[in-house]
Design goal:
six-stranded mixed beta sheet; Aldehyde Ferredoxin Oxidoreductase,  A, domain 1; 626 residues; alpha+beta; Tungsten_al_ferr_oxy-like_C; 27 helices; four-stranded mixed beta sheet; oxidoreductase
């Protein structure tokens, strides 16, 4: 079957290593990447499994198009049951590991069981071994990757840091300056004593029509090169639109979502003055180079060289989300400080979004008097305090002291431990902290955040651009402040974004490929003749599998909600002043959304819907209705 490698299955409990074929019917129904990883997660991790127990598994799948040099096809998906949310866990990374895994001959890596000592999984083409990793346990991600390359030579690596080792539910995996950070999957690695993965592949993945593929690669390289967005993306990175979000839309959340724009700066700024964390300010001063994802012809990477904190060291980023979570969220305007905190998160193996938002919650609790110096181990945990934030990150990674133990698992767990109505400013959905869009002023995105199967996520639907600009692809005339007609809009975006993740295409090029660019690429790689409709059905199928996983774990409509602050406190100032999502508006949007999805009023996929998607076995297990 062209376009596909084997399934590699490694059991860390028994040491057994097996290779299996991907059934052609599964390949056609799910393509690759997220699709295949979602299907196998549902089928192989049983209901009620402990996310940090032996029954949970790790599934790593390169996107279908990732190995072939197709522009911006760089993404690899990892799924597992999330220790953070207790539901479907997904993390996507644009790293060389996916290409290397494909070159070694594998389209899906399944890691199961649980080692009783730290291990490294080594894959070199057909040779696979489980090696001792004891000497690396306790090392930061950078230290561990350096040791692995010294030992194994020219390999691609992925490792956890101290946060994953200490089972932090907001820990991720570092893939050499790229992170699969969300949903706490680093803790799953840590629970299995899997310190790292090293891969070397020397095979050439075979496509169905190599000649057609070469022509398509050239075609898309030119389209992307000539697209007007490419210059801005390459020039200033993913944070390029920060100023626009901050001033023109008033939807850049700061100070733990007390504000919708960086008020403390703009209230005193001179006309035309730039915010320190705005890439238009810091890129010309601190960028030392770029570090593109594999196959990227429009690299948004901005390598930041530090001069004040850890002088001379470099960090890939900070990205837009991190400029929010470790910048605006903590009321820190110093770009070097944000880059430094970003560096610490990467070394410790912490998700920058969840870590920053959790510290933001703690800073608000401290300033409200709900946390004392005794609770914070003596730290002056006030907004803007860089040193306190840095020390808090360290304590979180090592679960050190009262503060480390309080914050290590994110803001939901922390607010439950603290009580005192601190839940009212805990900014999470299903346990996962929100990304950098104040959805009080973006109603369609508020719905997308509420229903996302992995908890708060901006890329499960990728709808923020459509809402904020008012149009995209087939959509036009979108009113971001209205709660009307959002169900079909969100559902359609979600289905399409699942296709992007199945193929491995970066969503920063979604305004270039759209859906129309995919059928000929899929055909060149696999030989599958697929219509636009079939691709969208695949996206819908993937989304329903993920939702069914959550339904089997007991998730219902009650879990499709938003933080208390978003439902009750309007944005106080800026372009979106007065906006918030009224509880009745959310309920109305949920009704529209479930109707568009063909689910029950409780948000459970119906048997009829699942059967229509050729998911008969899942329909029998979780589907409702006749």
């Amino acid at each position: 079957m062209e376009g596909y490698g084997k399934i590699l299955r490694v059991n860390l409990s028994t040491g057994e290593i097996k290779k299996e074929d991907i059934p052609p019917s599964i390949a056609r129904k799910f393509l690759g990447g997220l699709g295949i990883a979602a299907y196998y997660l549902y089928k192989e991790v049983p209901k009620g499994a402990d996310a940090l127990g032996e029954e949970n598994k790790i599934f790593i799948a390169p996107g279908l198009l990732t190995p072939y040099g197709i522009p911006t096809a760089s993404k690899t998906t990892m799924t597992s049951k999330s220790p953070l949310t207790g539901g479907f866990g997904r993390s996507v990374v644009g790293a060389p590991m996916g290409v290397e895994l494909s070159k070694a001959g594998y389209s899906l890596l399944i890691i199961e069981g649980k080692s009783d000592k730290p291990v490294i999984l080594r894959i070199e083409d057909d040779e696979v071994s489980i090696d001792d990793g004891s000497e690396l346990w306790g090392m930061t991600t950078k230290e561990a990757q350096k040791k692995l390359k010294e030992k194994y030579g020219k390999v691609k690596t992925a490792v956890i840091g101290p946060a994953g080792e200490n089972l932090s539910k907001i820990s991720g995996i570092d893939f050499e300056e790229r992170q699969a950070a969300r949903n706490g999957l680093g803790a799953v690695w840590g629970s299995k004593k899997l310190k790292g993965l090293v891969v070397k592949g020397t095979k050439k993945p075979k496509a169905y029509d190599e000649g057609a593929l070469r022509k398509l690669i050239a075609k898309w390289a030119k389209i992307i090169k000539d697209h007007p967005a490419t210059k801005d993306d390459m020039g200033y990175g993913s944070g390029e639109f920060l100023r626009w979000m901050n001033l023109e839309r008033g939807t850049f959340p700061t100070r733990n979502w007390q504000w919708g724009y960086f008020q403390s700066f703009y209230d005193k700024a001179k006309e035309g003055e730039l915010l320190g964390i705005d890439p238009y300010y810091w890129v010309p001063k601190f960028r030392s180079g770029r570090n593109p994802c594999p196959n990227c012809t429009k690299p948004c990477s901005q390598v930041f060289k530090l001069t004040k904190y850890r002088p001379g060291e470099e960090i890939d980023g900070p990205e837009y989300e991190t400029l929010y979570s470790l910048g605006g969220e903590l009321e820190i305007d110093d770009p070097e400080a944000v880059a430094y905190l970003n560096l610490l998160c990467d070394e410790y193996g912490l998700d920058t979004i969840s870590a920053g938002v959790t510290i933001g919650w703690a800073m608000e609790a401290y300033e409200k008097g709900l946390l004392t110096k005794e609770d914070t181990d003596g730290l002056e945990l006030k907004f803007g305090n860089v040193e306190a934030a840095a020390e808090a990150l360290r304590k979180m990674a090592y679960r050190e002291g009262k503060l480390g133990e309080l914050l290590a698992d994110g803001s939901k767990v922390a607010s439950e431990k603290l009580g005192k109505e601190s839940y009212k400013f805990a900014i999470h959905v299903k346990g996962q902290e929100l990304p950098a869009y104040d959805v009080r002023g973006i109603k369609g995105m508020a719905l997308a955040i509420a229903v996302s199967y992995r908890g708060a996520c901006h890329l499960t639907a990728g709808i923020y651009g459509t809402e904020l600009v008012g149009k995209w692809w087939k959509f036009d005339g979108i009113d971001r402040l209205s709660a009307e007609n959002k169900g079909f809009e969100v559902k359609t975006h979600e289905d399409l974004m699942q296709v992007y993740d199945a193929l491995g295409i970066c969503k920063f090029s979604r305004h270039m490929y759209f859906l129309e660019g995919f059928p000929e690429l899929v055909h060149a790689v696999t030989g599958f003749d697929m219509s636009y409709a079939e691709l969208m059905v695949i996206g819908e199928r993937i989304y329903n599998v993920a939702r069914a996983f959550n339904a089997r774990e007991g998730f219902t409509r009650k879990d499709d909600t938003l933080p208390w602050r978003i439902l009750h406190e309007p944005i106080p100032k800026g372009k979106s002043a007065g906006a918030y999502v009224k509880p009745k508006e959310l309920e109305h949007m949920l009704d529209e959304y479930y109707q568009a999805r063909g689910w029950s009023e409780e948000g459970i996929p119906t048997k009829a819907k699942l059967v229509s998607l050729d998911l008969d076995d899942i329909a029998e297990e979780v589907g409702v209705g006749h």
